[in-house]
């Protein structure tokens, strides 16, 4: 899958909500729900693969490896993946982009934090030199053009709105398809970014990691240039809550009868069990069947 589908979503006059997925089953569920793009976060991979927080335990190789398992379930729906800081200098960022492209990822977001980064909304963030950050983006857009590149800046938390706008402008000039001003949650501040960078699509993050969920409407976001809204861990947290309730029910009553669950038939359909049965009948030419 090339970047064209994601670039189309960034270009159209519409807000697209992009939920997080982390394996083939959740990817298939997102497609069945009608989503037009999905997201793979470093936090989700670190938690589900390693049981670790998003503090640098996973690398590009592991993100790409996970993507190869879930891309087939997406049936062409584009996957936007977390590329952290690019895992090093511009050369490393290009290597990351090439690995993601080979895995079937359609686009990535690259941030300007000092590596190792501070996860999500934790205090103590630092950002790298703006020139180095722009160089990573330029290298990616020139050498891996099949990927959409979304430039995330974490400058707001440490340097404020003015520096955020400067960095978004520099990253757009370096070739980024969109900018991602992490931490900016007020509509008037998003409007200021949009006014300074007319025509540059904006991506925002609606994550439970934030201390407060902003009260955005799609109409408000559309008016200030936002085109993608990421929901990186909402489904993961919902799944963990459901699993927790189920384990508690089994421990207390000996069964999960009181817990709402997906019917077994729906689950087997989701993972393609019927198609996987009787492989000889599917693949052996009819005249050779016995």
Automatic annotation (TrEMBL):
InterPro entries: ICL/PEPM, Isocitrate_lyase_ph_CS, Pyrv/PenolPyrv_kinase-like_dom, Pyrv_kinase-like_dom_sf. It comes from the Bacteria. The keyword Lyase applies. Gene3D superfamilies: Phosphoenolpyruvate-binding domains (3.20.20.60). GO terms for molecular function: lyase activity. Pfam families: PEP_mutase (PF13714). Keywords: Lyase. This is 2-methylisocitrate lyase. It comes from Actinoplanes ianthinogenes.
């Amino acid at each position: 899958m090339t970047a064209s589908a994601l670039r189309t979503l960034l270009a159209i006059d519409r807000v697209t909500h992009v939920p997080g997925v982390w394996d083939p089953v959740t990817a298939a569920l997102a497609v069945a729900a009608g989503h037009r793009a999905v997201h793979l976060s470093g936090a989700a991979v670190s938690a589900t693969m390693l049981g670790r927080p998003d503090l640098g335990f996973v690398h590009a190789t592991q993100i790409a490896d996970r993507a190869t398992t879930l891309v087939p379930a997406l049936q062409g729906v584009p996957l936007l993946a977390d590329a952290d800081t690019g895992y090093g200098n511009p050369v490393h960022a290009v290597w990351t982009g090439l690995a993601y492209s080979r895995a079937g990822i359609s686009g990535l977001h690259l941030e300007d934090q000092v590596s190792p980064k501070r996860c999500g909304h934790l205090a103590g963030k630092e950002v790298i030199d703006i020139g180095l950050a722009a160089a990573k983006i330029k290298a990616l857009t020139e050498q891996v053009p099949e990927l959409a590149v979304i430039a995330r800046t974490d400058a707001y938390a440490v340097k404020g709105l003015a520096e955020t706008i400067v960095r978004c402008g520099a990253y757009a000039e370096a070739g980024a398809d969109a900018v991602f001003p992490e931490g900016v949650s007020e509509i008037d501040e998003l409007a200021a970014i949009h006014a300074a960078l007319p025509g540059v699509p904006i991506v925002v993050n609606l994550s439970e990691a934030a201390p407060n969920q902003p009260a955005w409407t799609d109409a408000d976001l559309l008016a200030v240039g936002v085109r993608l809204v990421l929901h990186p861990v909402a489904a993961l947290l919902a799944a963990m809550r459901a699993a927790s309730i189920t384990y508690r029910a089994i421990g207390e009553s000996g069964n999960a009868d009181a817990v709402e669950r997906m019917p077994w038939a729906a689950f087997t359909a989701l993972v393609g069990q019927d198609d996987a049965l009787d492989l000889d009948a599917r693949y052996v030419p009819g005249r050779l069947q016995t």
